[in-house]
Amino acid sequence: MLLRVGRELRREAREVGISPEQVSLLVAVKYSPGIGVNELAARERISAPAMSNHVDRLERDGLLTRTPSANDRRRVGLTLTDEGKRVLRRVRSRRTAWLASRLGALSPEELAAVKAAIGPLSLLLPPEDRP
User: Fold this and answer.
1) Residues 22-57, buried b or exposed e (16+ Cβ, 10 A)?
2) pLDDT digit string, tens, across residues 62-96
3) Does the pTM exceed 0.85?
4) What distance in Å separates the CA atoms of residue 121 and residue 16, rounded to the nearest whole number?
5) What is the spatial distance between Cα 38 and Cα 121, in angstroms, rounded to a whole number?
6) 103 to 1, 58, 100, 112: CA distances (angstroms)
């Protein structure tokens, strides 16, 4: 069931014209501005060359930019562009609207069951990602 909900939420990203994988990368950059390609690749568990290709595409689409480090000229950090921030806001808005419409159709008892499940479900996430 959770997989289906996740699939529906990913569809909302596609409606904005961006893949769920791209959303994931943009969110990672949003919360770690200046992150390098290699570190982002390690976090996302993909190879550095594959990540470089993803970053190239996002940069070409105007969603993020590479910024040389002021301290180390060999290091390049990634930051969201204004358009990248707008795309993330649109995705979040669509996902929130989708979820709110579904939750609004639930009975009070069903909502209570969803609320009760949030705590145990959050334990499935790594500690740093828990609410």
Assistant:
1) bbebbeebeeeeebbbebbbeeeeeeeeebeebbee
2) 999 998 877 777 788 999 999 999 999 999 999 99
3) no
4) 28
5) 30
6) 15, 33, 5, 11
